[in-house]
Every structure is written in structure tokens, then in C-alpha cells.
Write a structure and sequence with these properties.
alpha/beta; Rossmann fold; seven-stranded parallel β-sheet; 48% helix; 15% strand; globular
């Protein structure tokens, strides 16, 4: 018996590191159908679909821009038409890491610098949840997991547009938990620290090493370590949890 036996889940940002790991872990835990939203990288999404299929789950590739409200509603409709249910939504889709934006001085940040992360990370999460909510409310059950970040809690001197958008995601989590709680829909968040993903690979080696050493565990996390928390939050083991942010950062927030 798996923690997610027979359930169907939609994962945004499924072609990236944490999204891919979560799709695979969901399949291992018995999920029946897994929707894999991606924006541009079809080849990466197909690779995830192959991995999901190898563990006995049925993948469904869904290309969409999550910053487009209609597109989010469209992929949810396609998903429900295929599987006739939606038990879990996990939102990893995020604005691509850009070194020049990450390290830009605050006074040099333009309107566009903020709007990119706001549109994809924050509005993308809101729009996906908007689309999923009616299905889950009707079923009187469901789990939504949004993804913030540790700096959204601690603050930082770099990456401000990114972590401000993620702070909005954490606030959205708490609001949705209040709205959807009466329908037995659980809404929680994960706040990862430094995790070995494509974004981390974009950092200069010295910066990446320093970032890892700031955590109490003196290392970066693996995508699977985030994925397992998503499994937990979408399982019956988290049945009395909502509005919670799980900080999964190796002790970075204690620095």
C-alpha cells in the first residue's frame, strides 16, 4: 500500500528538478494519474512522463503558461476530463533563475524585474488553485501544496523579486486554508532552502558553496527530500494540517 494509492495529482513545473522528483515519488506511492504541467521544455516533460510510467502511474502532459488564468483553468479541465477527479495539486512552476536579476542591486530593479516572478510564482499558484478549488470542494476532499522559499521568511539581500513573490505564496497558502478548510481541502506550503536544481546550477560555484555552508547541515538538499514532504502533505498522514509552512532548508533559517 502506498500513501497515495489510487489518487490523481496535478503538478505544475513538473519538468524541473523538484517537480520531476515529486512526480516520481507520487508514482512510487501509488498515484494512479499524474498531470505534468510544463511551459516550454517538452523533452524534459516527456522524460518525466517516462519515469512516472515506469512506476505504474499514468502521466498526462499539459503545456501551459501558469501566469495565464485561462490556461490554468484549461489544464485542470483537461486533467479532470481524463481522470474524473483531482485529489492533489502541487505548484512548483517558477520564474526562470536569472543571475543578473538575482544579484541586481535593489535600487536598480525595474518593474519588469518584479513582474516576472510575481506573474509566474504568485499568480501562477493563485490561478492553479482557483481552477482546482471547485473540483475539490465538490468532492469534499483534496490537498493543495504551494511552494515558497526560506528567504521568503528570513529575508535576504539578493533575489528580492523572487523571494517577495514567494512570500506572497506563503500568505496565499494561509488565505486558501481558511477559504477551503470547511470543504475538507487542505492547503499547505513547503519553504525549501538551497536545493540541487537547475537554479542552483546557475549560481557561480563560490556562491553556491557559500550558500550550502550557511545551512546547519552544511550541504544542499536533494530534490527528493522536498518531494517526500509533498507526498506527506498530500497523504492522510497530514489530515489535521492546513495553513502550515514546512521549512525544509537544512537549518538555513537558523543562521
Amino acid at each position: 500500500m502506498g500513501a497515495l494509492d489510487g489518487r490523481c495529482a496535478l503538478i505544475t513545473g513538473a519538468s524541473g528538478g523538484m517537480g520531476r522528483a515529486t512526480a516520481v515519488e507520487f508514482a512510487k506511492e501509488g498515484a494512479k494519474g499524474i498531470g505534468l504541467q510544463y511551459s516550454r521544455n517538452r523533452a524534459a516533460a516527456e522524460s518525466v512522463a517516462k519515469a512516472v510510467r515506469s512506476h505504474g502511474a499514468e502521466p498526462l502532459l499539459l503545456q501551459a503558461d501558469v501566469g495565464d488564468r485561462d490556461a490554468c483553468h484549461g489544464i485542470v479541465q483537461t486533467f479532470v476530463k481524463r481522470f474524473n477527479r483531482l485529489d492533489a495539486l502541487v505548484c512548483y512552476a517558477g520564474y526562470p533563475f536569472r543571475k543578473e536579476l538575482w544579484f541586481a542591486g535593489f535600487e536598480d530593479l525595474t518593474e519588469d524585474a518584479f513582474l516576472g516572478p510575481f506573474r509566474v510564482d504568485l499568480l501562477g499558484s493563485a490561478f492553479a488553485a482557483q481552477a482546482a478549488a471547485p473540483v475539490m470542494k465538490k468532492a469534499k476532499r483534496g490537498a493543495i501544496v504551494l511552494v515558497g522559499s526560506t528567504p521568503a521568511i528570513t529575508g535576504d539581500a539578493v533575489g528580492i523579486p523572487y523571494f517577495v513573490a514567494k512570500a506572497g505564496v506563503l500568505a496565499l497558502t494561509r488565505g486558501l486554508a481558511q477559504i477551503l478548510g470547511p470543504f475538507n481541502v487542505h492547503v499547505n506550503a513547503i519553504a525549501p532552502g538551497a536545493v540541487d536544481t537547475e537554479a542552483m546550477a546557475g549560481l557561480p560555484p563560490k556562491e553556491a558553496k557559500t550558500l550550502a555552508q550557511e545551512a546547519a547541515l552544511k550541504r544542499r538538499g536533494a530534490p527528493q527530500e522536498i518531494a517526500r514532504k509533498a507526498v506527506f502533505l498530500c497523504s492522510d498522514d497530514a489530515s489535521f494540517m492546513t495553513g502550515v509552512t514546512l521549512v525544509v532548508d537544512g537549518g538555513y533559517a537558523m543562521r
